[in-house]
Specification:
Elements (H helix, E strand, L loop, with lengths): L17 E5 L3 E6 L17 H8 L4 E2 L8 E7 L2 H12 L4 E9 L6 E5 L2 E3 L7 E3 L8 E13 L5 E11 L6 H8 L26 E9 L6 E5 L5
Parallel strand pairs: 4-11
Antiparallel strand pairs: 1-2, 2-4, 3-4, 5-10, 5-11, 6-9, 7-8, 9-10, 11-12
């Protein structure tokens, strides 16, 4: 059995967490790219969404996470009972999440579904892999918003596709891996080929943003629908 050794040290993140809504039960935030959701075991990875928010909201806990490089919407519980209620909604898949992304190249189909099981392989850490035999079911839908070319400083252009991604399951690296699987990795994704296209090597960030979140408020029963446009 392989031992997982995490050598990742997060660079400092100067961007602030944007609080979009708060009440006595929960907080809705816009997470900046380049910030860990939870502090790592390495003391150099102390800064995180949770580390920052717990100073302002003592006792708060994360209900779900976004990858280090992903920006966008997160809901944070302010006590254990609210955490349990929200986690139940996530586990029952009644929470709707939509992401905005820029993909390398031009996707042919305007919409589609990617059904590809995902497995963890300690030998490949931190990469996940598509594995029909040992993988857990993973399903994502995509919708093309636009196809365009981005001009670079040297005059060359990169073909890109802006998409909306809707994960039906919540596997680690699911959207990044599924986009690679269809031959169009997310621009700026260092793990799954999003910096291989000529001109993409120095992309500033992972072009993935959690743009929509829908869930039921665990106390009021109100349907919460939040939208936050991608910054790219």
């Amino acid at each position: 059995m392989s031992t997982i050794i995490d050598t990742f040290i997060a660079p400092p993140c100067d961007d602030e967490i944007e609080t979009l809504y708060q009440d006595d039960h929960l907080v809705l935030i816009n997470k900046p790219a380049g910030l860990l959701s939870l502090s790592g075991k390495n003391p150099q990875n102390l800064d995180s969404v949770h580390y920052r928010l717990v100073q302002q909201f003592p006792g708060c806990t994360l209900v779900h996470r976004l990858d280090f490089g992903t920006s966008g919407l997160m809901v944070v519980a302010r006590n254990k009972a609210i955490n349990a209620a929200l986690c139940h909604q996530f586990s029952q898949r009644t929470v709707s999440k939509v992401y905005s992304a820029l993909l390398c190249g031009h996707l042919e189909a305007d919409q589609g579904t990617i059904d590809a099981p995902i497995a963890k392989d300690p030998a490949l850490f931190p990469l996940m892999s598509i594995c029909p035999i040992n993988g857990k079911p993973a399903r994502s839908r995509y919708q093309v918003v636009e196809r365009f070319a981005r001009q670079l400083a040297d005059g060359t252009s990169i073909p890109l596709t802006r998409v909306q991604l809707t994960p039906e399951t919540g596997r680690t690296h699911q959207l990044r891996l599924h986009c690679q699987q269809v031959g169009h990795p997310i621009l700026g994704c260092d793990l799954y080929g999003g910096r291989l296209l000529p001109g993409t090597e120095h992309t500033s960030r992972l072009m993935l943003h959690a743009s929509e979140l829908r869930f039921v408020h665990p106390v009021s029963g109100e349907q919460i629908n939040v939208h936050h446009a991608a910054p790219f």
